[in-house]
Amino acid sequence: MLSKVFSAAISGLDAQIIEAEVDCSYGLRHFEIVGLPDKAVEESRERVGAAIESSGFQSPHHQPVRVLVSLAPADLRKEGSLYDLPIALGYLLAAEKIKFDPRDKIFLGELALDGRLRPIKGALSFALATREKGFAKLILPKGNAAEAGLIKGIKVIGVDSLKETIDYLQGQKEIFSQKTNPEDFLKIPNYPVDLGYIKGQASAKRALEIAASGSHHLLMIGPPGAGKTLLAKAISSISPQLSFEESLEVTKIYSIAGLLPKNKPLINLRPFRSPHHTSSEVALIGGGNPPRPGEITLAHRGVLFLDEFPEFHRDVLESLRQPIEEGEITVLRAKHSLTLPARFTLVAATNPCPCGFYGDPEKKCTCTSSQIQMYRRKLSGPLMDRVDLFINVPALKYEKLASLDEENCSRKIREGVTAARHIQKERFKSEKNLTNSEMGIPQIKKYCQIDSKSQNLLRNYVDSGKLSARGYHRVLKVARTIADLGNSENISFNHLSEALMYRVRED
């Protein structure tokens, strides 16, 4: 007899419906799975057989039956152990061991040998696909029910075992649909680093405030131990809270990557990713076979912090140019094409030279001019042109290290940043943008009007070669953010001057 049970597969960050067709007929004992299964799917034959027997039914391995499982569409690679549950139910249905209507249900789950169900990755994506494709119920391991329960409009049924699933499907046991309240996970978190821990560095703190308000890219330059890393870590504490929609975006990425914290089905803290400078290009931008999200995608709607910026391999840094500009990365391979979101804020830190003390009034630099030039040449002009804010972070005196900066604590600065983000949300409510940094040229012309005095200032910088065409537009976007922080509808000469101060570097 032939049966058909529905399941799903992850393709990029979204889920696609899979039809698990099972044909069961008498003949030589045989169990085969077709439809481009990977090793984990092929091995499900043994897990399914043992789980079926542990649940009180006869295993197909102990009967003279020929079982053929087809996972359609056949040209899509099937990966992982999440097909165990639909294959087991499909066999029992085809062998007429159980009876239920599978038409409006999607099944997912890995089976243990004793019939228990283990959690899977990507439950949020599967729940979204269930709703979008018009299915009524999503049946999956209980460990994933809270995550999937964030999605309204479907019934999420969390089950512990194959036996419990069968009892529910045949009406022998009642299981209530999981409903997760997102408000329980959107509370203000405890931040590990507060800006108040850092005394002084007023210019750097102001640059961090602007970067957090408009999601602008920032490069900090200073000697070792000046506090660049601490400042970078503090940006999370002044960033506005994730909205529910942003939290779903981030949670979906982390769920698929298998990085979602236990007992926390919804991420409410903006990501902060800090890969080591020896990271490969694939680790940073994503890829592999099949393609997986990289650090820039894991930093989506958050911060990507690259410490020791020039120490990264040049090809790794150059690969950042397109995602910085577009807010997404398209990974092309011979058999795969994948577009991943990458709307992150780049915060980078570097020493001014190999020894770190070039220009320091207290310590003498021991580098030669050729060493300094070679060190700076690692950061190409096109990459630096995509950075919005450049700030020097000098070494601190003892008096500033020993005291707290209560006036510039993260809570106070975060209030201003949140207000600026609210202005941007209202400005772009009819568009796809969330922040000023995402504006295209038509939006810059619409929202970044400046007076004649400001135009003359910009003209001098552009005509003298100190500002490129890209730099011109980035200065306007930063000036728009500075105006928003001041709750100003128009960009003034002072707003533009401050934006230029952070943009133009004097070497």
Structural features, described:
The chain is an alpha/beta fold and 507 residues long. The chain folds into three domains: 2-180, 2-Layer Sandwich (Ribosomal Protein S5, domain 2); 195-411, Rossmann fold (3-Layer(aba) Sandwich), CATH 3.40.50.300; 439-507, Helicase, Ruva Protein, domain 3 (Orthogonal Bundle). It is built from 21 helices and 16 strands. It has helices at residues 39-42, 44-54, 84-94, 123-132, 145-148, 162-169, 202-214, 228-238, 244-256, 281-285, 295-298, 314-318, 321-326, 369-377, 381-384, 398-401, 410-427, 441-447, 452-463, 469-485, 493-503, and strands at residues 2-11, 14-26, 30-34, 65-72, 105-107, 110-111, 117-118, 137-141, 155-159, 218-221, 272-273, 303-306, 328-332, 337-341, 345-350, 389-392. The strands form five sheets. The chain has a five-stranded parallel beta sheet. Helix 2 crosses helix 3 (84-94) and helix 7 (202-214) crosses helix 8. The chain is elongated and about 85 Å long. It starts with a strand and ends with a helix. The model has no long low-confidence stretch (mean pLDDT 91).
